[in-house]
Amino acid sequence: MTILGIDRHLDDTDLARTLAVDVRAGLTATPKTLPPKYFYDARGSQLFEQITRVPEYYPTRAERAILTAHADEIALLAGADTLVELGSGSSEKTHLLLGGMRTAGALRRYVPVDVSESALNGAVKELDADYPELDIHGVVADIEHHLHLLPRRGRRLVAFLGGTIGNLFPSERHRFLADVRASLRPGDTLVLGTDLVKDPRRLVAAYDDAAGITAEFNRNVLHVINRSLGADFLPETFDHVATWDATNEWIEMRLRAGSDHVVRIAELGVTVEFANGEEIRTEISAKFRPDTVASELALAGFAVRSWWTDPDGDFALTLATP
Ligand code: AVJ
């Protein structure tokens, strides 16, 4: 493995500034909201790893099953020598894709893209011994803003896995897919992971596990705001709420205040009033139908080449080309 270095399009000051802007906007709005991207500090990332192992949270296992069965086929169809991974989460999935690309004979380069440099370093370390032939070119970037800055070398397979696209609202999703499309050239390929609509009881359980890990993950965003912006939230006084919105076909996570109270956010010079029972929306996680995945990709200028689900039909991977 050769580490080619890291491109930084974002630093801690940028992150602190966007957090401040987003928190001010979200907590002074009615109803109150917070963006899901701030769950993932070191503790939040650890809690998410734990979520992927609770019995109720099927998406990670389902996506892994698809990759285990079809990574070689995906690699052959893509014919890529470069894997670009947007939000380079778990190295295990990366491993399956890189393995497929190696079997296909073309593997040269891995480009993990993440807002967190420590997440990038983690991803690189995990792959160290296994892929001596690999050049690694890390990119610290916000995938909602910096897609045009991605390295252009090689024939690329761009992976956006985990169902994270479901965290975007439909209009944001369209813009994101159109931006990905604009950043690709002929010969490049997108592989997109999407969670699928299913029995609402299973969906709600996946976002409200009995062990309470998702609840703690949800409250973690308040710990992040306390630490980063000098706020005095009492996270444990907020209840975790997960509901299925049948109209929009998304899971909504919220935090519900347990009393009338006021929170001070020192670094914003802001106080926020909560009524007992008032909720902050912290995440949507949209679920898809096979035909909506295809039509949204088509609307963004992609042609769908192939798609796969796990044996239970819970999750889908779609291969699309510009
Ligand atoms: C990592 C964004 C795909 O939406 O299912 C897990 C995050 N939130 N449990 C998802 C999450 C609550 C997860 N993604």
Automatic annotation (TrEMBL):
Source domain of life: Bacteria
Reaction(s) catalysed (UniProt annotation): L-histidine + 3 S-adenosyl-L-methionine = hercynine + 3 S-adenosyl-L-homocysteine + 3 H(+)
Pathway in which this enzyme or protein is active: Amino-acid biosynthesis; ergothioneine biosynthesis
GO annotation (BP), single: methylation
A GO molecular function held by the record: protein methyltransferase activity
Domain Histidine-specific methyltransferase SAM-dependent, chain residue ranges per copy: 21-321
Any Pfam family matching the protein: Methyltransf_33
Residues given in the record as S-adenosyl-L-methionine binding sites: G87, K93, D114
Protein EC: 2.1.1.44
Cited SUPFAM superfamilies: S-adenosyl-L-methionine-dependent methyltransferases (SSF53335)
UniProt: L-histidine binding residues: Y57, N167, Y207, E283, I284, S285
Record's keyword annotation contains ATP-binding: no
Role, per record: Catalyzes the SAM-dependent triple methylation of the alpha-amino group of histidine to form hercynine, a step in the biosynthesis pathway of ergothioneine.
Entry's family note: Belongs to the methyltransferase superfamily. EgtD family.
Subunit structure: Monomer.
Name this polypeptide is given: Histidine N-alpha-methyltransferase
Naturally occurring in which organism (per UniProt): Phytoactinopolyspora halophila
Taxonomic lineage from the root: Bacteria, Bacillati, Actinomycetota, Actinomycetes, Jiangellales
